[in-house]
Amino acid sequence: MIIDWYTIIFQIINFLILVFLLRRFLYGPIISAMDDREQIIIQREEDAAAKKREAEKDSQAYIEKKEELEEKKEEILEEARTEAGKEKQEMLEEARRETGETRKRWEEAFEREKESFIAELRRRIGLQACSIARHCLEDLADSRLEELTWEVFLDKIGSMPAEERSSLQEAFASDGYKGVLKTTFEPSEEKLEGLKKALRDLAPDSDDEPDLSLKTDEGLVCGLELDTGGYRVAWSIDSYLEGVEERVLKELEEEAPSAQDGEVAEGGQTES
Amino acid sequence: MTINPDEIIFFQWNWFVINSTIFFTWLVMFLLTFGSWLITRNLTSKGPLSRWQNLLEVLITGIKGQIREVSRQEPGPYLPFIGTLFIYIAFSNILGIVPGFTPPTGSLSTTAALAISVFVAVPVFGIARQGILNYLQQYLQPTFFMLPFNIIGELSRTLALAVRLYGNIMSGTIIVAILLTITPLIFPVVMQALGLLTGLIQAYIFAILAMVYIASASQAHEEIQKKGEK
After folding, report:
1. Domain ranges of chain B
2. What 3-state class would DSSP assign to A185?
């Protein structure tokens, strides 16, 4: 008999025992180990996903922060640029103003200097011109000129206006008809007489003889001077020269400002 | 030459007999259990796996995958039964290459025992899955008159299962024996190699057929639609 029931039952029991043993020693542990590992892997994946999410969040936050900073940076830069520009403008203004002031002060000082120099120069020129004229006249003056001077002097007394004539008369009378005559050269008797006659003619109804004392003065350039009772009648080139000198200086001063104005205008243009 | 390993008696005490089939079954049982214990006593869930653990995991995962494909159900409850069928038959057949080892699967008693186990397991799993009434109703499908045919079909497929395995393994052993007498060199080696292949294929076929029978008895297809294939 091929089929042995004894062995079959034995084998069934053996098989069931083997099922139990393998379940205990093989399937159970292996499957639980695999499940554990699966669990661990799932856990890890979840952790990784969580970390990734977190990282993405962080990264997003960083990006946002960076953008914000970038924006802020731009703003700050813009502000700084504006500030700097303003500052620069102010400083430039300040510098310009200071330069302008300094320049103005300097120009004023220069102007003053120039004016004083020009004034001085003018004065010198005038004086020099007059001195040259005086010198020439001094060289030319001699007794012949003196004679001509006398004639002019006498003419002057003779042709005095009425008012002056009376005031000279009064002054002459108050001093007891005394007077001092200043001349460059000693006059002749004839000329003195002529003068006395002219003086007498001032007051025809008076008997008193005019008493004149003589005084020579080299400084009177070719002139005569009669001093009596605080009144003085004089004629000399010197007095003319003084007048000329005065006029020359005045003339120069009047001319100067127009020239200065032109210079200042030019200076103003260069400033801007 | 003995065709039936049951007739090789190793030990006998009154009615208690240890024949070759029982002895080598015990040997296989011991090797499998001890090997499993050796490997699984220090399993690890983290880090690199030992190659033995890796081997077992591949084996178990493969069996689970096959069960899932055939039954279209979660393999959990069927794994110990189907897995043990496969591992036991495959290991016995592989060890058949060792000189002096007589594969217990070459005994019709063993294959019949396994077939009877499947025969019993089919209703057990079916009832456990869908209740006794639902299970018994299957025998009345499509009509009441089909009952005898259903019962005959149940019995015949058990018989076919037993004889198929026995025939294949026994034939392999017998062919090698016959060839050894005709061409003692080289050619038997080729046949041995072929025997290894047929042995594994038989183990696979046996386990898969058992699974098909069990699955057909516990039709719970709606579960598949819910879970889908993993």
Report:
1. 5-227
2. coil
